[in-house]
Amino acid sequence: MTSAVHPDEPALTEVPVTAVLFALSDPVRLQIVQTLSGGHEYACGHLFPDMPKATRSHHLKVLREAGLTTTRREGTSKFVRLRAGEVAERFPGLLDAVLPDPADALPAAPDPAR
């Protein structure tokens, strides 16, 4: 099986901080980033399964285009993960500033893709 990175994924050097801040300004997207901050890769359809597919797709697109996530396709499935290391390198302290303390974290989404 071949896997490919999504073509709309920008290099973080090309992403202005305003785009990242806009992406993180929405509570739903912030919750998605919080869930992904655990370091797991999730099948897109398993990430917040109660959310309408179109809504989830929209939020994942905004996060991807802001350089916060990477999406990988494997067969007919798509997998998403946070680009935490790259984001921390480009925007030091940003994720730490917007993500809650892990002790205060909300319950995670269902099991990550394996």
UniProtKB/TrEMBL annotation:
* Keywords, comma-separated and alphabetical: DNA-binding, Transcription, Transcription regulation
- Locate the transmembrane regions by residue number: none
Q: Where is the HTH arsR-type domain?
A: 9-102
Q: Which PANTHER family does the entry link to?
A: TRANSCRIPTIONAL REGULATOR, ARSR FAMILY, TRANSCRIPTIONAL REGULATORY PROTEIN
Q: What is this protein called?
A: ArsR/SmtB family transcription factor
